[in-house]
Amino acid sequence: MNMKISDLGEFGLIDRIGKTTPRNAKRAPIGIGDDAAALLLSPSSTLLATTDMLIEGVHFDLTTTDLYSLGWKAAAVNLSDIAAMGGVPRFCLTALGIPPFLTVEDIGEFYRGVNACLKKFGAVLVGGDTCSSRKGFVINVTVLGEALRKVIVARSGARPGDLIYVTGTLGDSGAGLELVRNAECGVRSKTPAVRKLIGKHLRPVPRVAEGRKLAAAGIASAMIDVSDGLSSDLGHVCEQSGVGAEVFADRIPLSKELRAAKGLKLPPMKYALSGGEDYELLFTVPPDKIKKLSALRIAATEIGTITRVRSMRMINERGQGRPLMVSGYDHFLRLRRGHVR
Q1: The pLDDT of residue 243 is above 60
Q2: Closest by Cα among 136, 314, 130, 180 to 235
Q3: What is the pLDDT of residues 19-36, one digit of tens each?
Q4: Residue 82's closest CA among 111, 53, 46, 54?
Q5: In terms of CB atoms within 10 Å, which of 87, 210, 219, 334 comes out highest?
Q6: Edge-to-edge strand ranges of the sheet holding 312-315
Q7: Which pTM was predicted?
């Protein structure tokens, strides 16, 4: 009997593909399973390559986003993967499946957003492909970056005793997605707090400078961008590093806008743990490098500790622990439940 993809899940599918794909560790020391692939071009220089697909009706809804913001986000999510490896983004390629209802002007506005995001972070669009789509808008973006081989940060380097940090605040994008769908506020809302949360969802800002600083200083032992929610992405680090984690609930950084937002269906912490698409950096730091981290003046918050026991636990304000279950986004599991992101 054939197994359904929905029974395996997105990350189980990726793992299975990786196990059936030959690897050349000498030329590709980091391949399937990390934020970007690391490909050796010379003894010292490494090419970073990442690609992401955005599909109308799954990743975005054209009734709740403008095309400029969609272009910005399509570029940003890939730049964030390069940032999570400690690299410098350089070049971008796009491939579009364009439905008949989009105009030349629409596509121009999309690329205006792409190019604005790329320019801000020092990358440039160099090529791609276009074709027709019979239904929705399909977007695939590939970003190429570079890094010195000795400073690349993977997901697999966390060790027991390392401290866990995240940049910025978590949960804003997930809350923004809910608010932008809310007919009572949506994109027409004049409330500054609501506009900020929606803006974090529509136009995320990848932490490229922070990733480069952490890698260049040799501070981060492991790093990942928070694209699927804190619980999922910390779970990826733990799994690939062969470790566990304890996270302190009262240390997880939540913005004042998220804490004060009205009309949300879930408590703020739920958005931080499983909302996804924040594109902040989650990284681990050995205790003897904390002073070096402070000297970098990166806006990051310590939220927990890496442990030897291979499980994740959430510690509340009273010091009581409970299992931290992975609850972030998984395409195929959510699709099985009839969910569209």
Answers
A1: yes
A2: 314
A3: 655 555 555 666 566 656
A4: 46
A5: 87
A6: 222-225, 281-285, 163-167, 300-307, 244-248, 312-315, 321-323
A7: 0.85
